[in-house]
Design a protein that fits this description.
Layout: H1 3-20, E1 28-37, E2 44-48, E3 59-63, E4 72-81, E5 86-94, E6 112-116, H2 123-138
Parallel strand pairs: 5-6
Antiparallel strand pairs: 1-4, 2-3, 4-5
Length: 147
């Protein structure tokens, strides 16, 4: 890609935005991120010693105590708009069923929680996410393109 192609792309994008009343805040980025619960336990972390001049260049070692047992996997699907608005994520846990008390500390009813055998998104969960995103993003919609 060269600079001329990039300029033409953004000129075309600006024309579409103007034609349909799309505001920059109505642009969204979505990402799916896997989190391995328990990773980091039982590993060494080496940090610089911030002591006096004599210890300059030396390192301190901190050992994080824990086990290297089975790691659980959780997937989080999140979205943020170009205007800085974030919507509550979809949290996917590797289970067949979930218990309500697992999420008792989440006070926001807008979070979406799902389960899958793998702990990753699948077609059904992603469709639910799209419905969730559409409902949540309408709350901060600036443009009139859906009117």
């Amino acid at each position: 890609m060269n600079a001329l192609n990039i300029q033409n792309f953004y000129r075309g994008l600006e024309a579409v935005m103007n034609e349909y009343g799309i505001q920059p805040e109505d642009f969204w980025n979505m990402d799916e991120m896997g989190i391995r619960v328990g990773v980091g336990r039982g590993q060494w972390v080496i940090i610089p010693d911030d002591g006096d001049e004599k210890s300059k260049g030396r390192f301190s070692v901190i050992i994080i105590i824990g086990s290297h047992g089975d790691q659980e996997h959780v997937t989080v699907v999140e979205a943020i708009s170009a205007g800085g608005m974030a919507i509550p994520p979809l949290i996917i846990v590797k289970e067949r069923v979930i218990l309500e008390n697992w999420f008792a500390d989440i006070s926001d009813d807008d979070y979406l929680v799902g389960v899958s055998d793998s702990g990753y998104a699948n077609d059904v969960l992603f469709f639910q996410w799209l419905q969730h995103w559409e409902a949540m993003s309408r709350r901060t919609q600036k443009g009139d393109f859906f009117s």
